[in-house]
Amino acid sequence: RAKASGRATYEFFEPGMAEKAYADLVLEAELVQALTRDEFQLFYQPQVDARSGALVGAEALLRWQHPERGLLSPDAFIAVAERHRLMLALGEWVLREAARQSRLWHENGLAPVPIAVNLSSMQFRLDSFDGLMARVLAEGQLPGAWLELELTERMLMDDISAVPELLHALRAQGLSISVDDFGTGYTSLAHLTQLPLDKLKIDQSFVAALPGDRGALAVTRAIVQMAQGLGLKVSAEGVRNEAQRELLASWGCDGLQGELIGPPMPAAQFESWLAARR
Ligand code: C2E
Ligand code: MG
Ligand code: MG
Ligand code: MG
Fold first, then answer.
1. What range(s) does the EAL domain occupy (predicted)?
2. In angstroms, rounded to a whole number, what is the distance separating the alpha carbons of residues 239 and 245?
């Protein structure tokens, strides 16, 4: 088992562990270079109003154009980046890049497209995360309302005492706060009602099981109702077919995101997607 130091030192070996550790070290070294070589890119996935179909936002999703392995999704490298604190630099790059794109879209006359950015727990636990956000907004010359921050339930439940104050500080900058992958974590509902939040994003595992699965039906509908009761917005991720869209819209789910609407796309392709839709 790895020691708490976070270094690649092991108390004992299990089959495959040495290979895994070695692969992680290679990946770590490549990740450091990737930042300086500008190999990261943000893709944007559209989010639309469930009733009107109008664009309401875009989620920024990180991609790595690896020199040999091609385009990599976050699942292939985020865990390693987190273990080696690289995620702080990478996360900061994501924020600045999203801010840059947001300003650009605004200047090019695209309808206001708030960009949702995923945060890692490492970033959120920074002492000065609200200070970092303030700098990113000031440097990018954009109001907080143009960005949305996506946090997971775990991030809200860790270090409970500090979270409400931080969320208030972020919202005071105009930023809005979404809970990502909602329903898969362990949020205390009592705690949830006390937090200054804006939106719940229903995890795609529930949406994927609609409309056939009774359990998914019950949970998804309950999340929509709970959000409404708490005065929060609610959106669904991973919407893949018309039956899912209809069901979610009929319950009053506010936003939809998923393959049925559009895949994650590079910025230029996102613009053509939007133009074709209009
Ligand atoms: P997420 O924030 O829950 O993002 C949604 C994921 O679902 C994305 O995967 C998206 O491509 C995928 N998706 C969207 N619609 C559909 C659909 O209809 N069907 C299916 N099968 N999948 C769909 P992606 O881009 O691979 O990202 C995976 C996760 O990596 C994200 O989950 C997020 O937790 C994390 N991530 C992505 N970008 C960043 C980032 O910049 N920073 C941090 N810290 N995490 C990120
Ligand atoms: Mg997300
Ligand atoms: Mg999600
Ligand atoms: Mg996720």
1. 24-278
2. 7
